[in-house]
Amino acid sequence: MKISSSPDWEGSGPKRVLLRDEAYTTIKEFLFAEESEEALSERMLAARLNLGLGPVRSAVERLRAEGLLTAMMNSGLRLPDITAREILDFYEMRMVIETHVVASLTGKLSRDQFQQLDEILDEQDSCAQSRNTIRYHQLDLDFHTTLAELHGNSEMVRTLQQMRDKMHRLSRRLHRTHPERLSLNAQQHRAIVDAIRGGEADKSRNRMQAHLAWGRAFTLDPDGRMGGDWQNLTVDAS
């Protein structure tokens, strides 16, 4: 992760805004990359990330307002836990939006639009083979947001973008702890695009639904301790 350097003063006007935005982006990247149980403080973040204390305080306030940081009594700042209920709600919302998106796109994309998706898929295959979890994670987010952008409903795109931070945390954790499953994830993405390309709306919808159900179960039970056959789930749904 690239750590930027900033002086310990904010200046005024655009300079102040730039430093605050830089601190916000840098701290959020640090939080998501580390996913640490370590208690944090504004001074610790400023020192570790080589940022000014003023911009850090502004960034922390913004992150707390967005629910990405929580202040614990006598134990500093932490990433809030994501509860099982939040995970279920998160995937239910994605099911509604993303199954509709792929069904609506089926048979309607141009050659250039498929090329855009194929480039993501090809790089995903390469990253899955090399187990480059950091890059694969970004491509995973790109795949889902690109489908929504191609659909063109700005409210759906905005909703998914608002969910992106939670998607980032959940996907990053899964990809990092189980890199061997990247290939299956990539195969599911490709099967979804194949159904869209083949003009089969029901199959597109069913494959996205199966893919998200797999992600939901994997998130709730990453090590398969509760049993069930979800770990062998494929997306050959008709």
What would a concise description of this structure say?
Helices cover 68% and strands 3% of the residues.
List the helices and strands and how they pair.
Layout: H1 14-34, H2 42-49, H3 53-65, E1 70-72, E2 76-78, H4 84-105, H5 111-130, H6 133-151, H7 154-162, H8 164-177, H9 182-197, H10 201-220
Antiparallel strand pairs: 1-2
Describe the protein:
This protein has two domains: 14-78, Arc Repressor Mutant, subunit A (Orthogonal Bundle), CATH 1.10.10.10; 84-232, Four Helix Bundle (Hemerythrin (Met), subunit A) (Up-down Bundle). 68% of the residues lie in helices and 3% in strands. The protein has ten helices and two strands, in the order αααββααααααα. It has helices spanning 14-34, 42-49, 53-65, 84-105, 111-130, 133-151, 154-162, 164-177, 182-197, 201-220, and strands at residues 70-72, 76-78. It is elongated and about 55 Å long.
In helices, the fraction of residues equals 55-70%
- CATH fold naming of the largest domain: Four Helix Bundle (Hemerythrin (Met), subunit A)
The topology string of helices and strands comes to HHHEEHHHHHHH
Biggest sheet details: 2 strands, antiparallel
Beta strand count: 2
Beta-strand content: under 5%
* Whole-number tally of structural domains: 2
| Helical run tally | 10
* Shape annotation: elongated
Spatial ordering of strands, largest sheet = 1-2
Tell me which CATH architecture of the largest domain applies here. Answer: Up-down Bundle
Radius of gyration: 20 Å
Describe the structure using short key phrases.
mainly alpha, 2 domains, 10 helices, 68% helix
